[in-house]
Amino acid sequence: MSVYANLFSPIRIGTMTAKNRLLMSAMSINFGVDIDGRVTDQLIQYFVARARGGVGMMLVGGGAVHPTGLELPDLPTLWDDGCIASLKKMVAAVKPFDTRFGVQLMHGGRQSYHDHTVAPSAIPAPAVVKGSPRELTIPEIKEMISSFGDAARRCRDAGFDFIEIHAAHGYLINQFLSPNANHRTDEYGGSFENRSRFCLEVFRDIQQKVGPEYPVGVRINGRDYIDEGFDIEEAIRLALLLETGGAAYLHVSAGVYGSTELTIPSMYTEQGCFIHLAKAIKDKVSIPIIAVGRIKTPDLAERVIREGKADAVALGRSLLADPEFPNKAGTGDLDRIRPCIGCCLGCIHAVLALEPGGCVVNPKVGREYLLNNRDRTLNPQKIVVVGGGPAGMAAARAAVEAGHRTILCEESGKLGGLMRIAATPPGRGEVGDIVNHLINELERLKIKVMLNTALNERLLGDEDPDVVVLATGSQPEVPIIKGLFKTAMHLCTVTDVLDGRSPTGGRIIILGGGQAGMVMADYLAEQGKTVALLNRRPHFAEEMSSNDRFYLRERLKRDNVTLYKKTTIAQVLDDGVRFSSNGETVVLENYDTIIIAETMAPVRDAKNLLKNSRARVMIIGDAKQPRNLMLGLSEAEEIIQTL
């Protein structure tokens, strides 16, 4: 029996029984459909991988019920019967794995990425999506209601076990519910009874078309976290009405575009951040309640159910990071769970940029259909991986799993590279989770790791590798600025400070407004130091996901932090800097430390040793070109597949 007895006990939802209490949330992944919005093998195998991983329930995300409500361009469309054939194929592929499979029905309303948006009122979305929607007429409202019911009938006919109505996150139904978005004066606006009318009529239309025995759940916001938004008191009132109407379950989330708590929060937000909202509603209704909100460990998921805060938990990004999360949790193999690090970069950031979704720590997302039949190599080779950062460790793991003989050498005495120290600043600790996971994987696979060992001629001679993978990383590049090397201020780099090699004074200038500079500013400001950050670019931390950056920017709204952008440095002084910012001259004085946190330069010194070697040389990660973790890990796996 699993140590998580509550989490892995069956649950009855309406007429449906699921084998465990883990639901894969609907996620708008923005891939896996053809030009007509029909699902393809790419999306099918994405879901098959997660069904195989042991999740009890699973939802297809972003099923658009009407052309005006297509949230993103590459999501399944459900507004005509032509969708049924491909959906049937997907259901059949998932069926052998005993996972209850459903579809989330949604209409994006004013939060849709196209130029013919509609909404309860002609009020633009508070953030992300630009442009003003057109206000729906009463006949159009009736058409939208009917489109939900028709889409539900198609999903039932395709063989899905249940459906979920998306009435949260600032999409159309939530827009009707929220005074922030609904300024109507007719029967669909004003009082709570009128604002909830659209949601209840959608539910009744669906129930009428699929039958009362077919499980229909509803995702609602416990709180919008925005001025004049839907709040917990009205959420409880709506929950009671939906329970009376026959809802099979309620899935309680929070937030809209532009809310003060983001719908998809980053690592800066506490794990389980919306559970209290689920508990508040569970206390008032008797139907199953599903909690969501950065539930990323089996321990937390089990505790939520054991303590009666919800009846099931929803995982989204955790199942992107590791489709086998349920199976590994069920057998207690916790060290093997590949962790979501809450960076929001491959999932939500890519999708909102209208790109296919992915995952920083799992390069296989969206590629499952290409990798299903990949076997171990028929031509095993001897591989030396040089560098023990994430890219190097990932390459070594992939090489051994493919059947190659592999060793890893690391010049320092620790594994993790720069990612190890990137976990040091406040709120960034989860970055270290992927480092620890990869270290565990090296141990599990019994990969020979040689610390305090640089690549040298003796090592090359002793090992005589067929392939050398250089993953030697990068280091800060010091710019040429007038006066920089003559200043009386203590000069150091961001890595020097985070690695504890260089203490700082109490008044600090940071050169660089990217992620490194910004998290460094937060790190120092948290210690009570005065920080001035100079960014040459017009925007801060552009390489971060917008969700992650939002929380960092909020943290930096401190009296002891000053941020400058569009800066041009004229001269570094003995105790400060003279520069222009937005065209105005600024002089900073009485500072004692200057930290370089701008560009990074590849470290490839080891390549010179390989000129006379027979080994094939492959350069990956920052050693090839400094960039983000997602690209480094993806490249590590891809180069092994070419051998």
Write up this protein.
The chain is an alpha/beta fold. The chain has 3 domains: 11-370, TIM Barrel; 376-475 and 602-641, Rossmann fold, CATH 3.40.50; 478-598, 3-Layer(bba) Sandwich (FAD/NAD(P)-binding domain), CATH 3.50.50.60. Helix content is 31%, strand content 19%. The protein has 21 helices and 27 strands. Strand 3 (22-24), helix 1 and strand 4 form a beta-alpha-beta unit. The model has no long low-confidence stretch (mean pLDDT 96).
Topology diagram in text:
Layout: E1 11-13, E2 16-18, E3 22-24, H1 41-52, E4 57-64, H2 84-94, E5 100-106, E6 118-119, E7 134-135, H3 138-158, E8 162-167, H4 172-177, H5 192-195, H6 197-210, E9 216-223, H7 232-245, E10 249-254, H8 275-282, E11 289-291, H9 298-306, E12 312-315, H10 317-321, H11 325-330, H12 345-352, H13 368-371, E13 382-386, H14 390-401, E14 405-409, H15 417-422, H16 431-444, E15 448-450, H17 457-463, E16 467-470, E17 474-476, E18 490-493, H18 494-498, E19 507-511, H19 515-526, E20 530-534, H20 546-555, E21 561-564, E22 567-572, E23 577-581, E24 584-588, E25 593-596, E26 600-602, E27 616-619, H21 629-641
Parallel strand pairs: 3-4, 3-12, 4-5, 5-8, 6-7, 8-9, 9-10, 10-11, 11-12, 13-14, 13-16, 14-15, 16-27, 18-25, 19-20, 19-25, 20-21
Antiparallel strand pairs: 1-2, 17-26, 22-23, 23-24
Helix pairs in contact: 1-2, 2-3, 3-6, 14-16, 14-21, 19-20
